[in-house]
């Protein structure tokens, strides 16, 4: 088998960003909009984009699949024994790619954490704090 270099696959980081954005759309956005008094906008979104309801009904899958992808992407980015080429220009490109991978990773983590907070933690916290 050939050497599988996952660091050179930009589709992996964008796939992770896409899945975590789905978490944000299904779970965090509707709660934020309703909290701000835009319930009609949420009703309109659910009517015009019916797959949002499907994502919200399957929160466990919607949250766990991106979490697994984030764990895998973290391993890809920070796994041991990664080396950049010795050519200075290629080494600079390699370092730039690693830097962008880390940016996209942390953006994806923040998006996932916002979705997780609003869909899983917010209601128990409200009950605990009697809001």
In a nutshell, what does this entry contain?
The model has no long low-confidence stretch (mean pLDDT about 80). Helix 1 crosses helix 4 and helix 4 packs antiparallel against helix 5.
Structure write-up:
The protein is an all-alpha fold and 131 residues long. It has one domain. Helices cover 80% and strands 0% of the residues. The chain has helices at residues 10-35, 39-48, 51-57, 59-78, 88-129. Helix 1 (10-35) packs across helix 2. The model has no long low-confidence stretch (mean pLDDT 81).
Largest sheet: none
Order of helices and strands: HHHHH
Tally the helices: what do you get? Answer: 5
How much helix, percentage-wise, in residues?
over 70%
Strand content: under 5%
Average pLDDT reading: 81
Low-pLDDT stretches: none
Structural class: mainly alpha
Count the domains: 1
Number of beta strands: 0
Report the end-to-end length measured between terminal Cα atoms: 58 Å
Query: What is the alpha-carbon Rg in Å?
Result: 19 Å
**Broad shape:** elongated
Please give a handful of descriptors for the protein shown:
single chain, 131 residues, mainly alpha, 5 helices
Q: How are the SSEs placed, and which strands pair?
A:
Blueprint: H1 10-35, H2 39-48, H3 51-57, H4 59-78, H5 88-129
């Amino acid at each position: 088998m050939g050497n599988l270099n996952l660091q050179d696959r930009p589709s992996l980081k964008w796939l992770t960003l896409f899945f975590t954005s789905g978490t944000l759309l299904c779970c965090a956005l509707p709660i934020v909009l309703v909290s701000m008094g835009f319930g009609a906008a949420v009703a309109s979104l659910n009517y015009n984009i019916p797959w949002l309801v499907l994502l919200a009904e399957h929160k466990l899958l919607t949250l766990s699949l991106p979490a697994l992808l984030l764990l895998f992407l973290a391993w890809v980015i920070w796994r041991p024994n990664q080396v950049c080429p010795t050519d200075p220009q290629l080494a600079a490109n390699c370092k730039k790619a690693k830097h962008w991978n880390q940016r996209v990773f942390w953006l994806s983590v923040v998006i996932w954490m916002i979705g997780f907070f609003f869909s899983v933690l917010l209601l128990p916290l409200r009950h605990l704090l009697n809001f």
